[in-house]
Amino acid sequence: MKNNTYFSELGSAVKTLATGLKVTLIEFFTKKSTEQYPENRKTTLHISKRHRGRLVFTRNEDGSYNCTACTLCEKACPNGTIKITSEMREDPETGKKKRVLLDYQYDLGDCMFCQLCTNACNFNAIHFVNDFENSVFKRDSLVLHLDKETYDGGSLPNLLNGGADLTIGQFNTKIK
User: Fold this and answer.
1) pLDDT tens digits for 2-23?
2) What is the DSSP string of 31-62?
3) How far is the C-alpha of 121 from the C-alpha of 116, rounded, in Å?
4) How does pLDDT run across 57-79, given as a tens digit for each residue?
5) In the chain, how many H helices and how many E strands?
6) Are 125 and 146 in contact (CB under 8 A)?
7) What residues contact 122, with CB distance under 8 A and at least 6 apart?
8) 28, 38 in Cβ contact below 8 A?
9) Is 169 helix (H, G, I), strand (E, B) or coil?
């Protein structure tokens, strides 16, 4: 057993404290670089095209959608994020009954972004876009009705194509 005195333990503690302070002082005087996110996001922010930000309806050129209210996406969703309301109506042209979509409710706040709903859809009616700015003050505003709204492409220019061009090793930083 090593015989440590009070003063040798005190010296060891001061040495350890000095080592920690040395690291802190070096870091204190190093120039910091800060990404200027909110101000310059339109020019330099790059988002991967594969990023799953929110679910939207795939719209045709005339504004219609391909959803047939088959509820496959609702059944595939593991946590009940999607709720579909539909009814059977008679088609005036053919006389056959047809399922008609009344409401497609999607809760963005509960979504796990697992993409099981888009994989289950046989009609290519829904897909994820890489829009990530979905902050709201009230959780109720995260409940979206996809059949009633049209997605305009998000708040950033060229967002659906990935935003700004990706340049490796170059960041929009500000040295302080």
Assistant:
1) 667 888 899 999 999 999 999 9
2) PPEEE-HHHHHHHH-B--TT---EEEEPB-TT
3) 9
4) 999 999 899 999 999 999 999 99
5) 4, 7
6) no
7) 70, 72
8) no
9) coil
Q: Which two tokens stand for residue 175?
A: 């040295």
pLDDT class for 31, splitting at 50, 70, 90? confident
**Rounded Cα gap, residues 69 and 56, in angstroms:** 15
* Torsion over CA: 140, 108, 160, 151 (sign): negative
Q: Give mean pLDDT, residues 158-164.
A: 66
Strand partners, 82: 106
Cα–Cα distances in angstroms (integers) from residue 91 to residues 30, 63, 99, 100, 125, in the given order: 72, 21, 9, 10, 21
Cα–Cα distances in Å, from 32 out to 24, 43, 46, 135?
Answer: 14, 22, 22, 28
Q: What confidence score (pLDDT) does residue 78 get?
A: 95
The count of other CB atoms within 10 Å of the CB of residue 109 is 13
3-state helix, strand, coil in the chain (%, to 5): 25, 25, 50
